[in-house]
Amino acid sequence: MLKSKIHKATVTEANLSYSGSLTVDEDLMDLAGLYPYEKIMISNINNGERFDTYVIPGERGLGHICLNGAAARKGVAGDKIIIFAFAYVQEDGNEQMLKDYKPTIVILSDNNKPV
């Protein structure tokens, strides 16, 4: 199931020489319920690229969203992306729990502030 989504994050940097991952402002990680090194899927709205990587925390309050390493080939500063995280959810015979399930969705403004 979809656990968390950060919608319309603006890429602030693409750093090819970093070893890999996506740097996300730690305040945004907290809002979305993302954990350091959690696997994520990214969809680039500008160019249609979809890829998997993991999250690393960035400095709080700066709104940084940085594509690192190979991910830096999938977008450039200014691109809009969607960040998805998924989790296994066991119904344990309670189908209503699945029907009532709601992921955490954070929608961002152009300067990566929650709206």
UniProtKB/TrEMBL annotation:
**Keywords (A to Z) from UniProt:** Autocatalytic cleavage, Cytoplasm, Decarboxylase, Lyase, Pantothenate biosynthesis, Pyruvate, Schiff base, Zymogen
What's noted about post-translational modification?
Is synthesized initially as an inactive proenzyme, which is activated by self-cleavage at a specific serine bond to produce a beta-subunit with a hydroxyl group at its C-terminus and an alpha-subunit with a pyruvoyl group at its N-terminus.
Q: At what positions is Pyruvic acid (Ser) found?
A: 21
Metabolic or biological pathway, per its Swiss-Prot or TrEMBL entry:
Cofactor biosynthesis; (R)-pantothenate biosynthesis; beta-alanine from L-aspartate: step 1/1
Which Pfam families does this entry report, sorted A to Z?
Answer: Asp_decarbox
InterPro entries in UniProt = Asp_de-COase-like_dom_sf, Asp_decarbox
Superkingdom per UniProt = Bacteria
Family, per entry? Belongs to the PanD family.
Question: Protein name, please?
Answer: Aspartate 1-decarboxylase
Q: Which organism is it from?
A: Candidatus Magnetominusculus xianensis
Native organism taxonomy: Bacteria, Pseudomonadati, Nitrospirota, Nitrospiria, Nitrospirales
